[in-house]
Structure formats: C-alpha cells, structure tokens
Write the structure tokens for this entry.
Amino acid sequence: MTAVARVIRNTPALGLRDYFAWRGMDAGGIFNARGRGSWSSTHLLKAMEGMTESEQGTVNADFDRIQAMTDEPGQWAIFQTAIDKTRLEGLANPHERAMWLFRAEPAAFRQAEEIRYTDTRRQGRMWSGFVGPRHLVPSRDTSEHRRFEEKVCSLFGSRNARLDLFERTRPGRDSQPERLVQAVIYRDGLPDAGLEFNALGELELRPRRPVFELAITYEPNSGVIEVVANGVEQRTRLARLFAEIILQQGILGLRIPLRQYDLSRLLAPCDFPTDPEDGIDAVKVTWLKLRRQASTLPCIALISKWEDRHSVHEHAQHLIVAPEGMPQQFQTDEAIISIRLRPARGSTGRRRTINVTITLPNGCNLKSKTEKERLICDKYLPLWGLVKEI
C-alpha cells in the first residue's frame, strides 16, 4: 500500500479523477457527481477500502508502476518516449506526469519502463559491455527479427520470444545525449506452478510460464553493445546473436571491463577539487576500511562525521602507531566519500548530501542513476584519482 499512498498524496486531484474515470472505478463516490466537495488524500485512501478486491489489486499494480517512474531515470525515460511532450511539460510534478503517460499513452509508458530498467542496471551484476562495430544501422527486416527470436528461444529453451527494437538517447558524459538503439527481448521460462484458491475455496496447483525481460543497447558512435541479463555466458551469446543478426556483422565477444577503482591515495590527506558550476559545496572522506598488507581480513574502520572537526586521518593518528607508515602498512578496501551540494538557487530546503560508497575492485553504489550522480561517477571520481586506467 506504500506506493498507493505516495501516488495519491503527490498527484493533483484532477490527475487522480481522470485515472479513476479511465479505469471505470467509483472510488467511494469521491469523483462522481455527488462527490464534488472538498476531499483529501486521507479521504480517498479510506474510500478505497470499500472497493472490490479486484479493483484494489488493479490500483496497487498500476500505482506500483507509476511510482517507480517518478525518480530521475524514470522522468528522463518518460520525456524520451512521450508523443505529446508539450502536454507533459505542462503537468505539475513527476507523479502527475507518470500518471498521465500511463493513462494517455500506455505504449509509450511501457517503453519508458524498458529504458529505465536498462539504464538503472548499467555497470551492475546483470550488465556486460562488448566491443562492437561502429556506425551500423540495425536491420528492420521482420524476417531477421523472427530469426533472432528463434535463436533466443533455442538459447534459453523457451517456447516464445518477442523482440522490440526502438531508437532512444541516453545522457552522455558531457551532458550531451548519446544516440542509442535499444532491443528489449521478452521470453518465457520453464513451466512453473503455484498454489492458488479456486472459486470453491480449495487449494489447487495452477501452471504458468513466467516471462523474463532482457535488454540490449547499441551505441553507433562507439560501437559498444551492452547487455542486461542474468549470466555472463548468456550475455556474451546474446551480444553475438544481436551483432550477427540485427547488426549483420559478427563480433569476437570481447568484453569491456567493469570500471575498477584505486583508493590508495585516500591513505593520506588529499584535495577534492570541484568546478563552481557543478554546485558542490564540500567533500569529505567519512569512512575508510583498512587492512594490513599481509592480512586477508579488515583490521580497522575509520569514521568521521560531517559534524566532527577531525578527519579520518587525524583519527588514525590516535588509533594507529606510527601513522606516517600507514601508506606502506595498510591498504584501503572500502571508502565512503560524502559530497554536500549547495541548495538550488531560490530553494529554502536543506543541502543534499550524496554518499559515494566505493568497494574494491569495482563496487560503487551510484551506478549513474541521476544526473548529479552521473557527474560524480564520470567526471569527479577519475579527476580525484580514484579510477584505474584500463
């Protein structure tokens, strides 16, 4: 019910009224001719308790999808796919925009979901990048698409597969959009069965074949093919199939390595230079996990909060004998770098803080999800000497 409450509390009344009318639901009479008086989100949430179980299930499923698209990656995707962008720009907030697209342009909303699904999993455990040919135009031949679907079925032992291919953009390193082609593949899994109550209230096993989603992107300017799916070997084979059939040029399957980090310079006090236009107010190392060079287990954690006048290195002077030998004796396995942003111009809210957690060799909690986090990942971590050159 959390997503339902969030959507109701953040969506203007007109958007909610249009949604319930579109679904043909009374919503306790709040939005009908007799319910034109004032009402609150609390009234609506209470009224929904009187809806049928089927109606409540529909609202829960819809609002889960709508809520997921209200973050920055979701909003970027929504503006990518919406046909009526002028109408979208005139809406009040992310919830109203997601609600409107869900209702008015359902196919565009589904495509936006696919874009967000792919972008939020980049550089994660389900992601692999591959070296591919540059400046190719993917085939639009439906017979080639069917052949690709057949190969996917053969690869995963599926009965059915469907390929959706479309063009899109993605925020680039210099805030310039990168042109991409995205393929979304749906394929069914092995038969499964779950217990359900039938109309007589008796338990029975009902078979089903779950549907899984895979995603591939191709960036013509760089030639990079990225695959989001479970299993490294499956990702490699999917990249090769995509190149051979859709791009019509084979590849060797050479993987682009995950970004690797180097935290050695954090063993000593160091500067974190920033550009004024990026809105960063201050940067501080608030956590270091250290271990001795010959040990396999962490031996000490250094913590320094923003309110603490002392740095983690000053704490080390009290905790570690001969701190000047720290770079030789210890290595850093994990660090948290806390970045405080200046409030937006005219804003009266609190300063936002982004905590970047880096774990060797290639763990990072940001994953390039928001514009500011992409800036930190792509610009400042290399600038601060925390990324290995590969």
Remarks:
- Residues 103 and 147 are 34 Å apart (CA to CA).
- The radius of gyration is 25 Å.
- The chain has a mean pLDDT of 86.
- The first strand starts at residue 127 and ends at 131.
